[in-house]
Design goal:
Radius of gyration of chain A: 23 Å
Largest sheet of chain A: none
Number of domains of chain B: 2
CATH architecture of chain A: Up-down Bundle
CATH architecture of the largest domain in chain B: 2-Layer Sandwich
Oligomer: heterodimer
Shape of chain B: elongated
Number of strands of chain B: 4
Structural class of chain A: mainly alpha
Strand content of chain A: under 5%
Shape of chain A: globular
Distance between the termini of chain A: 9 Å
Helix content of chain A: 55-70%
Largest sheet of chain B: 4 strands, antiparallel
Distance between the termini of chain B: 22 Å
Structural class of chain B: alpha+beta
Number of domains of chain A: 1
Order of helices and strands of chain B: EHEHHHEHE
Order of helices and strands of chain A: HHHHHHHHHHHHHHHH
Number of helices of chain B: 5
CATH class of the largest domain in chain B: Alpha Beta
C-alpha cells in the first residue's frame, strides 16, 4: 500500500504512516510529561483570564456604567465581542458538517480541533450578552419556563429571543457532535493507556465502544444525519445574529444583505482562527504529516473565496446606500468611511480585503509563516468589522442632537482580553487531555491517494 | 426448536487479521458459508464490511425524522399558545397570530430535537453504554481500536460448531484464532450447564 499510484489524488497523510503510527502520533503528546511550553502558555492564558474575571466582577458589582457605553451607544464592545466570537465559532461546524457532506476528505485532520474551537468560541460569545444584561443572575429569564410571576412569557417576536434559542441550540449541537466524534478515539485511548485513572475516565466516556461493525454502521449514519442537521443550523445562527441588527430601523443596519454578509464573514473569520491555531498546533505537537501544506492551502482558498464575498458585501452596501437615495443611509456610510471612526473602517478593509489578496499566490499560500501572519491580521480585521457595523451606526443616527461617541474604558479592554484568556485556557486543556486529530477518521482516509482508491481500504 | 434455548458454553470464535482487505474477504467468505450471527471489529468504519456481513440498514433516519417533526410542531404550537392564548401582547393592534416571527425558534427546535433523537437513538440502539462485553475477554482485542481487524462468529449462530467453525476460520488464514468466553464463564442462572 506504500507506493503512490494515483496522480490525481495526493495522499492526505504524508510519510507513509501505518494505522499504528496514527494512533501513536496523536496519542503520544497526551501521554508524555506536561511540557514547560504548555505550562508557560497555560499560566499566561489563565492570568489573562483572571484579569477578565476581575473586570467582569467589578462590572457586575458596580453596573454596566463602567463600560464606555452611554444612552446613544448602548451596544459597543460587548456586542462586538459577542458577534466576533460567534463568527469564529462557525468554522468548526462548517469543517465538520459542510465539508463532510461535500466529501472533502482532507477535513479529517482538522475537524476535531476546529470543533473544539467552535465550542470554546461559543462559550466566549455567550458570556457577553449575559453580562450585558447587567444582572446576569436573572439571565434565566430569557428561557421560557412556567413561572409564578403571573402568566408571564418571553416575547417570541423579539430577535434577541431568537438569538437565545439559536446560540444555545448551536452550542448544544456542536457539543454533541464533538462528543460523538470523540467516542471511538476515547476508546483508542482507553485501550492504550497504562494509568488506571485515565483508563477509568476514558472508559467511562467511551461508553464501552468496541469497534463493532454494527455500531460503526449506525454511528456513520448518525454522523451523516448530524452533518445534515448542522449545516442549515450553522447558516441559521449567524443569520439570526444579523437579525438583531437588520430588524431594527437604524441606518446601516436595516438591510437585507446582512444575513448572507454575516454568514460569509463568520466562515471567513472562523477559518482564519482555525489556521492561527492549527499552525501553532502542528508545529508544537509535530503533526506536520497530518496537517500538511495541502490542508493549509485548502483553508487559504476558503478564506480567499469567503473574503471575496465579504468584499463584495462591503461594495454592495456602499452602492445600495448610494442607490437608495435615502439621506440617512447615505450619511451612515459616508460617516463609516470618513467619520471620526473612519480609521476602524479602513482597518477592516485593509485587513479583510487587501491582506487576503496575497492568497492568490501559491507560493504565499504554502508559506507557513506568511499564512500565520495573514490569519492573525484577518482575525483583527474581522473584530474591526463587527465594531464598525455596530458602533458607527449607533454613534450618529437620525438626530444630531442625540449623537455621542464611544471610547472603550480599561474595563472594556480587560473583558475583551479575558475572553481570549478563556478561549486559550480551554484550548490548551483540550490539547493536553484529548486527541487533537480524529484518529479513527484519519485511519479511514489513510489509503487515500495511495492505492488509487478514494479513502478506506 | 425448544422453548428453553441452552446457552452455548462459549460466546464465539474470533479471528484476527492485520489488513482491511483481509477482513473484508473473510467476512464475504463467512457470509457465503451461511453464517449470520457474526460481527467485525475494526479501528475505523468500513462501509463495504456492513454489506459483506449482511447487516440490515439502520432505520434510524425515520426515528430522527419523527423527532424533528415533533420538535417542529411542539416549537410552533408552544409559541402560538404563549403568544396568542396565555400571554397576548397587544402591540399597536398588530395580529396576535404573527406566525412568521415564530419560524426561527421553530426551526432551531426542529434541529435540536432531531439531533438529540439521532444521538440518543444511536447510543441506545447500539446498546451503549456497555463497558463489559465478551469480546473484551480476548487478550489482543485492545488492538481493535488501533490497527487490527477482528471477525467474531457467535456461538448462537445455527451453523456454529466449535470444530467446524474453527476449521473454517483457519482456512481464512488469520493471524490468530481465539475462543471468546462469556463475561461470566459460569452462567449464574444455569448452574446445571456444568
Amino acid at each position: 500500500m506504500a507506493e503512490v499510484l494515483s496522480l490525481l489524488r495526493k495522499p492526505l497523510v504524508l510519510d507513509n504512516k501505518s494505522y499504528a503510527d496514527v494512533t501513536h502520533d496523536i496519542a503520544k503528546p497526551l501521554e508524555r510529561k506536561t511540557s514547560t511550553a504548555w505550562w508557560a502558555a497555560f499560566i499566561i492564558s489563565v492570568g489573562v483570564l483572571l484579569i477578565g474575571i476581575a473586570a467582569v466582577v467589578y462590572q457586575i458589582v458596580t453596573g454596566v456604567g463602567v463600560w464606555g457605553l452611554n444612552n446613544t451607544v448602548g451596544w459597543a464592545f460587548d456586542i462586538t465581542n459577542f458577534v466576533f466570537w460567534i463568527g469564529i465559532g462557525h468554522a468548526g461546524t462548517l469543517i465538520s458538517a459542510i465539508l463532510f457532506l461535500f466529501r472533502q476528505k482532507w477535513r479529517t485532520s482538522v475537524n476535531r480541533s476546529a470543533e473544539a474551537m467552535t465550542i470554546f468560541a461559543v462559550m466566549c460569545a455567550g458570556i457577553f450578552p449575559i453580562i450585558h444584561t447587567g444582572r446576569p443572575w436573572f439571565a434565566f429569564w430569557l428561557v421560557p419556563y412556567p413561572n409564578f410571576r403571573g402568566p408571564l412569557w418571553v416575547n417570541f417576536r423579539s430577535p434577541l429571543e431568537w438569538d437565545m434559542f439559536a446560540i444555545s441550540c448551536y452550542f448544544t449541537i456542536s457539543l454533541v457532535f464533538w462528543y460523538v466524534g470523540l467516542i471511538p478515539d476515547l476508546a483508542t485511548l482507553r485501550d492504550r493507556t497504562t494509568s488506571t485513572i485515565k483508563q477509568k475516565l476514558y472508559g467511562f466516556f467511551s461508553l464501552g465502544w468496541n469497534g463493532s461493525n454494527r455500531t460503526w454502521h449506525r454511528y456513520e449514519k448518525v454522523y451523516l444525519l448530524l452533518a445534515g442537521l448542522a449545516t442549515p443550523l450553522v447558516v441559521s445562527v449567524h443569520t439570526i445574529v444579523s437579525w438583531d441588527f437588520a430588524t431594527s430601523v437604524i441606518p446601516g443596519w436595516h438591510t437585507t444583505i446582512l444575513p448572507p454578509y454575516f454568514v460569509a464573514g463568520a466562515v471567513f473569520s472562523g477559518f482564519a482562527m482555525v489556521l492561527t491555531l492549527m499552525l501553532i498546533v502542528r508545529k508544537v505537537m509535530s503533526l506536520e504529516a497530518y496537517i500538511t501544506t495541502h490542508h493549509i492551502e485548502n483553508m487559504c482558498k476558503v478564506i480567499l473565496a469567503t473574503g471575496g464575498i465579504v468584499g463584495l458585501a462591503y461594495a454592495t452596501e456602499l452602492f445600495v446606500a448610494y442607490y437608495s437615495a435615502n439621506g440617512y443611509e447615505q450619511f451612515a456610510f459616508i460617516n463609516r468611511a470618513l467619520g471620526p471612526y473612519g480609521w476602524t473602517y479602513w482597518m477592516m478593509v485593509g485587513c479583510n480585503i487587501l491582506a487576503t489578496q496575497f492568497f492568490w499566490f501559491k507560493k504565499l499560500r504554502t508559506n507557513v509563516i506568511w499564512v500565520f501572519i495573514i490569519s492573525v491580521i484577518i482575525n483583527v480585521g474581522m473584530w474591526f468589522e463587527r465594531f464598525v457595523i455596530i458602533m458607527t451606526s449607533l454613534t450618529r443616527d437620525y438626530l444630531p442632537a442625540s449623537w455621542a461617541s464611544f471610547t472603550p474604558t480599561i474595563i472594556d479592554l480587560a473583558t475583551l482580553a479575558g475572553s481570549f484568556g478563556l478561549f486559550f485556557t480551554l484550548f490548551l486543556l483540550f490539547a493536553r487531555f484529548l486527541p487533537m486529530v480524529a484518529i479513527g477518521e484519519v485511519k479511514g482516509v489513510l489509503n487515500y491517494g495511495r492505492n488509487g482508491k478514494g479513502g478506506h481500504a | 426448536m425448544t422453548f428453553f434455548v441452552k446457552r452455548p458454553d462459549i460466546y464465539g470464535l474470533m479471528a484476527e487479521f492485520d489488513a482491511p482487505e483481509k477482513i473484508l474477504a473473510a467476512a464475504e467468505r463467512a457470509k457465503q458459508e451461511g453464517y449470520h450471527d457474526m460481527d467485525a471489529f475494526t479501528p475505523f468504519p468500513m462501509e463495504e464490511l456492513t454489506d459483506a456481513l449482511g447487516i440490515r440498514h439502520s432505520k434510524l433516519s425515520l426515528f430522527v425524522l419523527c423527532c424533528g417533526l415533533f420538535g417542529m410542531l411542539f416549537g410552533f404550537f408552544f409559541q402560538y399558545w404563549v403568544s396568542v392564548i396565555d400571554y397576548p401582547l397587544n402591540i399597536g393592534g398588530r395580529p396576535l397570530n404573527s406566525w412568521p416571527q415564530w419560524i426561527p425558534v421553530t426551526f432551531e427546535l426542529t434541529i435540536l430535537f432531531s439531533a438529540f433523537g439521532a444521538v440518543i437513538g444511536m447510543i441506545f440502539r447500539n446498546g451503549l453504554p456497555r463497558p463489559v462485553h465478551p469480546v473484551f475477554n480476548v487478550d489482543r482485542f485492545e488492538l481493535a481500536t488501533k490497527d487490527k481487524f477482528f471477525l467474531c462468529i457467535e456461538a448462537v449462530d445455527p451453523k456454529f460448531d466449535k470444530e467446524k467453525t474453527r476449521k473454517f476460520l483457519e482456512s481464512l488464514k488469520p493471524d490468530y484464532i481465539t475462543v471468546v468466553d462469556h463475561v461470566h464463564t459460569k452462567d449464574p442462572y444455569h448452574q446445571d450447564d456444568e
